[in-house]
Amino acid sequence: MTQYNQLAIQWEFIISKIKSSVTVVDATLPEFPLVFVNEYFTQLTGYSAEESIGQNCRFLQGPETDPDTVEQIREALNKQQSMKIELLNYTKNGQKFWNELNIDPIFSESGECLFFVGIQYDISERKYAEQQLRMAGSLAEMNSRGQLEFIGKLNHELRTPLNGIMGMIELISMGENSDEQKEYLELARESGEALLNIVNNSLDMAKLGRGKMMLEQIEFQPLKLVQQIIKTHEPAAQNKQIRLLCHADLHIPDVLTGDPLRLRQVLDNLLSNAIKFTEQGEVQLQMDVEEHLGDMVTIMFTVHDTGIGIPDTQIHQLFEAFTQTDVSHSRKYGGTGLGLTICKELIDLMNGHISVESVEGKGTKFEVTLPLLRQQAIPNVG
């Protein structure tokens, strides 16, 4: 006991100078009672030294103290191990505070564990800041989802009357009209299609943002799909007097399983952009087998053009929403800047990858790699 008292006195002198909460626990007794607390401990907890010494540290715990954390501390004490852990405790007047608790065992020369020294740092402010950040993040996410929900509903409501307007324009175009009326109807049709494209893109962005975009897994014929896509874009290429080419690897399977609608949406967007930003030369769509592993085939779709290209300083922004490489491009070529963002999101959903290479003034190349399941071939695919 004399040796014990001498140690306690030495510790009291040294530890009293430390401006952190320090406790010393008797490791030789089963209840691990406190044998020393410094002045900072009493300031932090509100308990005097006389109220604390002789008690187990559990008297600082309260209803929201995590039982699992307490169990981890108990295990470390029983195993006579050092540990560092965060713990919610309560002051004498019931106020909660967070501790970063550091525990170290003190052994005698014979190897007997005599004491546990605990140093507690008050991290309540840090924990409060973390809680506020989490709450702010949750609130921002809720607001974002609410906005996306509103945008989705609004655009859905817009699309219905817009389709009606487009239908009426088509019906009027079928009748007898003067050249001037035909010109006006064509302008109205083009404006309607542009607006419908904006609405559809906004709907897709809202679905993707809310995690509501669903993919199909159905059989389709890739060569036939690509032929249909090319035919759709031939008139636009002919109007600009540029060549539209298509090349397909002979090893492309006849039938694949995936989502042909979303794949077509991606390729349509890439081809449309390529034609839009190419004034002379050609646009080419190429389809190759990149990897064949069992029933899984990785197909690479390459869309290459000889258009205006993309500056190196802006290429990294290409897949961000509402982004175009130049404000003048938006005025000259139109568009919302959503198309490539949607393409990337769809490709990611399909476990694929999209990349871009470009030289300003010489053209752009997009590469889409997509893993698809190969099905048993069917005859007369075409």
Report the strand count.
12
> What's the pLDDT, averaged over the residues?
80
Strand content: 15-25%
| Terminal-residue CA separation | 98 Å
Order of helices and strands: HEEHHHEEEHHEHEEHEEHHEE
Low-pLDDT runs: 327-333, 378-382
What is the helix content?
40-55%
- Structural class by helix and strand composition: alpha+beta
Separate helix tally: 10
Radius of gyration: 35 Å
* Silhouette: elongated
Main beta-sheet strand count, sense and barrel state: 7 strands, mixed
Which features does this protein show?
382 residues, alpha+beta, 7-stranded mixed beta sheet, 5-stranded antiparallel beta sheet, 10 helices, disordered C terminus
SSE arrangement:
Blueprint: H1 2-15, E1 21-26, E2 34-37, H2 39-45, H3 49-52, H4 67-78, E3 83-90, E4 96-107, E5 113-122, H5 124-173, H6 179-209, E6 218-220, H7 222-239, E7 243-248, E8 256-258, H8 260-276, E9 282-293, E10 296-305, H9 327-333, H10 339-349, E11 353-359, E12 363-374
Parallel strand pairs: 7-9
Antiparallel strand pairs: 1-2, 1-5, 3-4, 4-5, 6-8, 8-12, 9-10, 10-12, 11-12
Helix pairs in contact: 5-6, 6-10, 7-8, 8-10
What does the model show?
This protein has 382 residues and is α+β, with helices and mostly antiparallel strands. It has helices at 2-15, 39-45, 49-52, 67-78, 124-173, 179-209, 222-239, 260-276, 327-333, 339-349; strands at residues 21-26, 34-37, 83-90, 96-107, 113-122, 218-220, 243-248, 256-258, 282-293, 296-305, 353-359, 363-374. The strands form 2 sheets. Strands 6, 7, 8, 9, 10, 11 and 12 form a 7-stranded mixed β-sheet that branches. A 5-stranded antiparallel β-sheet has the order 2-1-5-4-3, sandwiched between helices. A hairpin with a 3-residue loop joins strand 11 and strand 12. Helix 5 packs antiparallel against helix 6 (179-209).
